[in-house]
Amino acid sequence: MKIAVLYGGTSTERDISLVTGRAVGLALAGRGHEVLLVDTACGDAPVGPEQAAAAAEIGAEPPHVGHEEGKALDAVAGRAVTDADVVFVALHGGTGEDGTIQGLLELAGKRYTGSGVLASALAMDKRAAKVLFREVGVPTPRWTVVRCDGPVGGGGAPGFPDDICVPRFSGGEPLGERVSRKVSELGGYPLIVKPNDQGSTVGLTLVSEERYLVPAVESAADYSRYVLIEAYIPGREMTVAILGETALPVVEIMPEGGLYDYESKYTKGHTNYLCPAEIPDSLSSELERFALLAYSALGCVGYARVDFRVTAELEPFCLEVNTVPGMTAVSLVPMAAEAAGLGFPELVEKIVELA
């Protein structure tokens, strides 16, 4: 089978995507497929898996990558994608995971891995996903949203009536005073502050008291015009990978620093993992049920990863659904698949078959 792997790109998750794409390409080539990799930041410049560039090292901070207009379109219109039987989308974050690339592939008439346009867009928009979770009965932490570029209706994505709108923190009533009115509704401090439409915990801060709130919002606003402020759920970090319509064994994530942020995810030795998680069968079943419900509510297909926090009383809260999760040989979805008896090459081939 001819397979084109789209990877790299210009999002803050470029480094991770480079590692994912090369790992996927090598695994598929090892299974006998004809594979070309295309970095959407470079346009129509396909290479074989052995020649594909990968990040030499994923840094403790996300990269700042400039966007070159038209390169992604050139990549999708290029010969590697045009000739492919299936396109493997290995782009994390940005236009690779928010439905944009999926829309281009739809218009090009190409089969591709993972979720479609709407599901991708909904999952990337954390607030939209949480609204759907609440609607179908999936528990999720309480939240509010700060819009950081002026009044509602000022262009871009539509605002919600209860958004806290600020013209990038200049003039008018201080942001802290506006948000403090909402803090009690969220259960008080600590709070999680993060961009509403980024992955890999880019721009995430755990805010322990009021004086740190505005700096955290400003930091998140460097990555998105919408900033999500969410109740912090003390407890344990769990994730459930889904393949097709099947939930794989639960993984427990144990960051040494207590917070599973970008540095903890991508710095070797900063996080330990346990799969299957050592939790009661009843909790495993509940996490798998909520994961499948969240996945189906968004309209996801193929595969995804659903992240949770679990309290000391074993009460789960769904944080988000990742529609293009990391796919290196040591990532969480492959880890769960391995526990279910499916090796990495077989896993990526199965994802292609599901496309």
Write a brief structural summary:
The chain has 355 residues and is an alpha+beta fold. The protein contains 13 helices and 14 strands.
Describe this structure in words.
The chain has 355 residues and is α+β, with helices and mostly antiparallel strands. Helices cover 34% and strands 20% of the residues. It is built from 13 helices and 14 strands. The strands form 3 sheets. Strands 9, 10, 11, 12, 13 and 14 form a 6-stranded antiparallel β-sheet that branches. The chain has a 5-stranded mixed β-sheet with strand order 5-4-8-6-7, covered by helices on one side. The radius of gyration is 20 Å and the shape is globular.
Write the CATH fold name of the largest domain. Answer: D-amino Acid Aminotransferase, Chain A, domain 1
Number of strands: 14
Q: Report the mean per-residue pLDDT as an integer.
A: 86
Helical fraction equals 25-40%
Classified by CATH, the class of the largest domain is Alpha Beta
The CATH H-level superfamily of the largest domain is ATP-grasp fold, B domain
Element order: H for helix, E for strand: EHEHHEHHHHEEHEEHEEEEHEHEEHH
Unreliable residue runs: 150-156
The number of distinct helices, counting runs of at least 4 residues, comes to 13
How does CATH name the architecture of the largest domain? 2-Layer Sandwich
Main sheet specs: 6 strands, antiparallel
Q: What shape does the CA trace take?
A: globular
Give Rg in angstroms.
20 Å
Percent of residues in β-strands: 15-25%
| Content-based structural category | alpha+beta
CA distance, first residue to last residue: 13 Å
**Domain tally:** 3
